[in-house]
């Protein structure tokens, strides 16, 4: 029974936003952590801060790099090798352009990170869960994986893929007693828009003006709720908006 023992969680994209807040909340609740990202200084800071509350191990790899993913996960010390919870969170939108004006490098980045990176990490970790006949995988999808919106095109495609992978994992891992579920947020104020708009801070800030967006802490709270349900309860698919948002494109802005 997964809930009776001290848990170990593996979080991708732990250096910022949703992943970072999930790491903090898990640490406060004494869940051991394997935190991943590419920014070593952010990983070092997190390790220093969160080690006061729980055991923390950091891994620096780019999820696009298949060999690096498997080497990093193979390198885990014995006391971090039994992973109970996988939060597949690393990802971003790159650009917001009409399809015909899309940048091929942006398309590659979104499909390689949001889809293939998630697959590599999952492939490396699932065997432990199968061996243990227990585990919980939470895939961070998006409203963009439920609804295509103007100029969302390839980012939406990447998140529709996450939605399909979430369903496929749940079906195929069912016989192994593994829980699989997705959280699909609407607008959350994180580093997301800085990346989407390639460092244009003014444009990024505009995304969150005139209404109260979700905070990454809100999503962390939901993820923590999911992992703390009794083991026979699997929250399979959850869509969460800020109250001001009704769909991918309908946001009640008071500007
Ligand atoms: P942030 O930009 O704040 O965080 C993204 C995280 O992903 C960072 O920790 C980053 O770490 C990591 N990451 C990005 N690219 C790579 C890579 N190639 N290899 C390894 N790690 C990588 O954004 P959010 O917290 O908002 O995003 C987290 C997830 O939530 C994403 O999957 C996103 O699509 C999803 N989401 C976000 C929404 C929002 O409105 N913010 C809404 C719906 C879904 P580092 O740079 O150190 O590698
Ligand atoms: C992030 C939310 O609406 O920018 O996935 O696609 S949105």
UniProtKB/TrEMBL annotation:
Whether Oxidoreductase counts among this entry's keywords is yes
Matching InterPro entries, A to Z? Answer: NAD(P)-bd_dom_sf (IPR036291), Sc_DH/Rdtase_CS (IPR020904), SDR_fam (IPR002347)
One Pfam family it belongs to: adh_short
Gene Ontology molecular functions: oxidoreductase activity, acting on the CH-OH group of donors, NAD or NADP as acceptor
Q: Does the keyword NADP apply?
A: no
What residue range is the signal peptide? none
- Keywords in alphabetical order: Oxidoreductase
- Family per record: Belongs to the short-chain dehydrogenases/reductases (SDR) family.
Q: Which PANTHER family match?
A: ALCOHOL DEHYDROGENASE (PTHR42901)
List the protein's name. Answer: Short-chain dehydrogenase
């Amino acid at each position: 029974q997964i809930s009776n023992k001290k848990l170990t969680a593996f979080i991708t994209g732990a250096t910022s936003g949703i992943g970072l807040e999930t790491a903090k909340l898990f640490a406060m609740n004494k869940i051991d952590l394997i935190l991943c990202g590419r920014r070593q200084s952010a990983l070092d800071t997190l390790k220093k801060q969160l080690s006061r509350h729980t055991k923390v191990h950091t891994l620096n790899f780019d999820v696009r790099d298949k060999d690096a993913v498997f080497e990093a996960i193979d390198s885990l010390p014995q006391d971090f090798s039994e992973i109970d919870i996988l939060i597949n969170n690393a990802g971003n939108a790159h650009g917001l352009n009409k399809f015909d004006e899309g940048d091929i490098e942006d398309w590659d980045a979104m499909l390689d990170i949001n889809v293939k990176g998630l697959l590599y990490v999952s492939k490396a970790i699932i065997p432990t869960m199968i061996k243990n006949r227990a585990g919980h995988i939470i895939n961070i999808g998006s409203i963009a994986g439920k609804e295509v919106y103007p100029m969302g095109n390839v980012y939406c495609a990447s998140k529709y893929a996450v939605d399909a992978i979430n369903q496929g994992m749940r079906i195929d891992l069912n016989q192994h007693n593994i829980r699989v579920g997705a959280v699909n947020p609407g607008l959350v104020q994180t580093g997301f828009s800085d990346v989407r708009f390639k460092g244009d801070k003014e444009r990024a800030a505009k995304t969150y003006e005139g209404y109260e967006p979700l905070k990454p802490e809100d999503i962390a709270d939901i993820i923590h709720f999911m992992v703390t349900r009794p083991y026979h309860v699997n929250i399979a698919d959850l869509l969460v908006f800020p109250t001001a948002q009704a769909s991918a494109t309908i946001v009640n802005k008071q500007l």
